[in-house]
């Protein structure tokens, strides 16, 4: 992620010096040349807000500046969307001028969700029926992603120069956003505030979306984590095999060889203890299966705050999976709110499926049943699963694990 | 389209300068009605506004509300052409939209305040807008028709102003010393439906359940009523207390007339004189300051008078009938309810007999109401069928009285005997609301029993209802024919079970505070209720 190369190509406005001190990252080719070409290109670039196809897209995401300049749009060309962006800015500013902050606009099946982060405005326009809370969280993640790429210095740039053009700085990173946005539709981590873990404990699948970037073998990355806004971090990423990688973070810019040594030692331990082969096996197995549970075969799903474990892959059709995912998302939003307090068991029956969310103590259970399943039996099954989860809690969840211990 | 887009931005941005004054807006409630077809040219924006509450809000602030609303209506149509903006949720305010008639919008802005428990369900607020509009149309005809009659808009503005102010008056919080110390009315407050009203449903009728014998009596009374008018197709509505006993009107018209009866005609409405809400409307509600509600008792604020707003005639002396005015109905010696709202005597143009417009047939009807003890009998005679106006109506009334008085006594007696009082529909252990959307009928736990619920339970139910509202509206826009089937049981913070079941156009909402054992127990409790009181409509098996 070379901010240097971006700055050089971004014209007069962007050539304004980046606030110091920013360590110069090593120059790398971005995006990597080995990526398939089609994968890098943004979709529907020929569209704008006058196109019917653009208007009919199910989910839009926009990032704009408080002066109404478009920074990112999921669909369509940002430059062509300048007028639309100005409208979004006008709505937000108008409400702000009245001493309030707009959060949500509803129109039929559409929701327009707003998130203001200082001089950066984020907007989602969606007809996916996802709850407001989920969409807002998605905007937060997109903002986090943006910061990850550009660091918080960008905010200072805006404060100095409201007309600052950020688009060139994000050039080529469309794929990062697309990939993140795509994950909102399949990765429960985005609404559970959790990380997926394999049955084997060692593989932390995702914290930062950098892991979507593909095969970045042995490269020193410059990263800034939202949780530690004042720290610039260097990430040492090493792929241990095709799917598993190790990421080491440091604040020191010249720790490359030290980290390399560490990595070699860790790798040795992992190999010796056959943890790596366990991870591989676990990846191939796809985690735990319902059949392994002491119950009738039912599609099931588990979650807990911060770490989750699921069996959703056992529903084969992606459409069904998405439907189930959305249903869980709604359940989560209904139960995890200020008014409702922490999760409480609930039961929802729609035409086709039963869902259950239980919170015996410190984990949540989401499950779907056949619509014809007997309710009493379904509840009984859930209770048994809860009991079983409690018994093996230490094995399947990363209990007590903290993402970063400094 | 690009023009439209630009317009949308302009609508919002062009007015942003005015918004700086919006912070001076009195907090609480704002309610406006505007017509998107008017005031299209620069400098004529004022012409859009047909009603604004509070009327003494500076124009810049009024424009600010209407500008934002109009901007968002245009904006949301880009993505959702069929259903434009329905609600804006901001941190401190909720804006609820309702397109009452094509291009005529009603927008209510309410301030959120934890202190005053101002936690709203936007659908409940929209139903307030719907109700006031339906009632308005019932008496005055559609807003568009009024505007067509008087393009200047003065006539419409005067009518809307008095009607809505009278309506809002009904939301006014009375002092606990009501009746004896009117002067204690310090800090006037408006009551709007809040989370505490989540076991009520506005826009529905509450029915009295009658035994077989009484039902036969009622039926025979209705038949006699119909025959009184000879060949004239008249309609009737019978109420006992604040509950509907029988109707020959369409569901829509029944709801409107029932709402009016409960507001102004039933024994409770007449006797209380001041606060005339039925048990449906009573109960704790959140407050909104309304300092200006009676700020201008003298008349319509200037901008709502014809002369000010491009009225070609410059005429501001419209005769405005105010059917919702309080304390204007009373019971005459013959048992008929009388009022001078429509004038003390018939003039050449307007009859002194109240009239209403039927929603279904768009036919204007004379409204006659007769009361015997707790029984209120409303019958409607087509205006077109009574040739000699008020005199003719009097004759029909006389005839009705002669024919039905005996039956009326018997029906009243029968119903009174079977009536066990306010808590008639209380089901021990349950707090519930049952809505039949197809028939616009609802039944709920008595208000007095609902107040025993904790705030946590009510908040949880209110939130659940908000979700069900969303699901319902989505199902509606997906496929008109397909009805939503839904069951949600949530355990609130206080361990109470909060349950919603929607099936085949019927809805059941329930709070079970003492059933904190298991989900299965709660589920069984609902099943029992459904089998016993709803003919198994909500039973799963």
Automatic annotation (TrEMBL), chain A:
InterPro entries reported in the protein's UniProt record: FUZ/MON1/HPS1_longin_1, FUZ/MON1/HPS1_longin_3, Mon1
Span list, region Disordered: 1-39
Ranges for domain FUZ/MON1/HPS1 third Longin: 312-392
Pfam families: Fuz_longin_1, Fuz_longin_3
FUZ/MON1/HPS1 first Longin domain location: 59-179
Compositionally biased tracts (Pro residues): 18-29
Compositional bias annotation for Low complexity: 1-12
Lineage top rank: taxon: Eukaryota
GO BP of this protein: protein targeting to vacuole; vesicle-mediated transport
Purpose of the protein: Plays an important role in membrane trafficking through the secretory apparatus.
Sequence similarity: Belongs to the MON1/SAND family.
Name of protein: Vacuolar fusion protein MON1 homolog
Organism, as annotated: Prunus dulcis
Lineage per the UniProt record: Eukaryota, Viridiplantae, Streptophyta, Embryophyta, Tracheophyta
Automatic annotation (TrEMBL), chain B:
Source domain of life: Eukaryota
Ranges that cross the membrane: none
One biological process term in Gene Ontology: vesicle-mediated transport
Family matches, as InterPro entries: Ccz1, CCZ1/INTU/HSP4_longin_1
Residues annotated as domain CCZ1/INTU/HSP4 first Longin: 32-141
Pfam families tied to this protein: Intu_longin_1
Name of the protein in its database record: CCZ1/INTU/HSP4 first Longin domain-containing protein
